[in-house]
Design goal:
Blueprint (H helix, E strand, L loop, with lengths): L1 H5 L4 H6 L3 E3 L11 E3 L4 E7 L8 E6 L11 E7 L14 E7 L13 H9 L5 H11 L22 H13 L10 E8 L11 E6 L9 H6 L32 H4 L2 H6 L4 H24 L4 H16 L9 H16 L12
Antiparallel strand pairs: 1-2, 3-4, 3-6, 4-5, 5-8, 6-7, 7-8
Helix pairs in contact: 3-4, 3-5, 4-5, 9-10, 9-11, 10-11
Length: 352
């Protein structure tokens, strides 16, 4: 998390919109769980990008909730249909349904070889093309053979030793391996066009396995910063609770900004209504960052809100948020509050 490391939806709605949970039923009890939307979303692709080791850089859009293990954003992607076309210049919106490779799969995707594919993407060797060929060795629904070098110029090189090594490793070790927290699992992007569901290539993305944790409220963190009941998580900040909060003009610390009130604002020559939105956002931001350090992890959507809040704090050292940023700050506060108060699936309150 670029902002955190450097410086150191209402409960009822959630109940109505709980995500689908997918888990494997393998005999070896390998059952990683992942929360995915149960509705079609939009995907865009770039083929063999220069800035990522993958066959496709895939952007997901139209994920409407914050509590899934996927978020609107960029993911590493791979193909499982060698020889079938897919638009990959990022100007075509592709409707897809996300399915965990450890979940209940449609018959044409249901194969035990997903175990080997998941092993490979967690133990890659060579370059993107080497990895892609190893994936095709185990799962390839396309018309071309996994080792074909004649049909497509992008895969015209002979099969590399790195590919053969990954294939052998997967055969030898995948059955005794299970992804753990921090590993990635394959999430299939199944084409979901209304009239012709098979009109473009099937891909999958790598999704980090987030095992969840628990959260404390802002009140807990405010009351457990110093003294005999201090929570050591505060020491993750560069100067503990006394760390100055984003170079604000009033020398408020990460702890004091949580308690900053109208009386103190007046003493600083401030009008409370001018800085109240900033203080409310800081109140929830501090707790969210400490909850991150407590668990060393975050739900995907919450990480983005924390980064967005940090940008606001950096933009307003005088604490007087203005314009459209006021509504954005209020919205971010709401999302961080849901996280801090234990409303997100897989992230209950620590005392529950």
């Amino acid at each position: 998390m670029k902002k955190i490391i450097g410086i150191f939806v209402v409960c009822v709605a959630l109940a109505l919109l709980l995500p689908q949970v997918y888990s494997t039923e393998e005999a070896d009890d390998c059952e990683p769980e992942i929360y995915l939307p149960d509705y079609p979303i939009t995907m865009y692709t770039w083929e063999f990008p220069d800035d990522m080791i993958c066959s496709y850089k895939i952007e997901l859009k139209d994920i409407n909730e914050d509590y899934y293990d996927v978020d609107n954003g960029i993911y590493k992607g791979w193909c499982i249909e060698f020889g079938k076309a897919i638009p990959h210049d990022h100007n075509v919106a592709l409707p897809v349904k996300l399915i965990s490779s450890y979940g209940d799969l449609p018959d044409y995707l249901d194969t035990e070889d997903w175990i080997e594919v998941n092993y490979i993407i967690n133990h890659p060797k060579g370059n993107a093309r080497d990895i892609q060929r190893a994936i095709w060795y185990f799962i390839n629904l396309g018309p071309w053979d996994w080792d074909d070098t004649t049909h497509y110029s992008g895969m015209s090189q002979p099969v590399a030793q790195a590919t053969l090594d990954m294939i052998d490793d997967a055969k030898d070790y995948a059955d005794d391996w299970c992804p753990e927290c921090g590993d990635v699992i394959a999430v299939i992007c199944e084409p979901h066009a209304q009239d012709h569901e098979d009109d473009f290539q099937i891909t999958f993305i790598e999704v980090k396995l987030v095992c969840g944790g628990c959260t404390y409220t802002p009140g807990y963190w405010k009351n457990h910063a110093v003294g005999k009941h201090a929570d050591p998580t505060w020491e993750e900040l560069s100067n503990g609770p006394d760390t100055i909060f984003f170079d604000n003009a009033h020398d408020l610390t990460w702890l004091s900004v949580m308690s900053f009130n109208a009386k103190q604002a007046k003493e600083e020559g401030l009008i409370w209504t001018d800085v109240q939105v900033y203080q409310h956002l800081a109140f929830h931001y501090v707790a969210a960052v400490l909850n991150y350090h407590l668990n060393d992890d975050l739900p995907p959507g919450i990480e983005g809100y924390i980064d967005d809040a940090a940008e606001i704090f950096e933009a307003y050292p005088d604490m007087k948020i203005i314009g459209d940023d006021i509504e954005e700050a209020k919205s971010i506060s709401t999302h961080l509050a849901e996280f801090n108060e234990g409303y997100l699936p897989g992230w209950p309150h620590c005392s529950d």
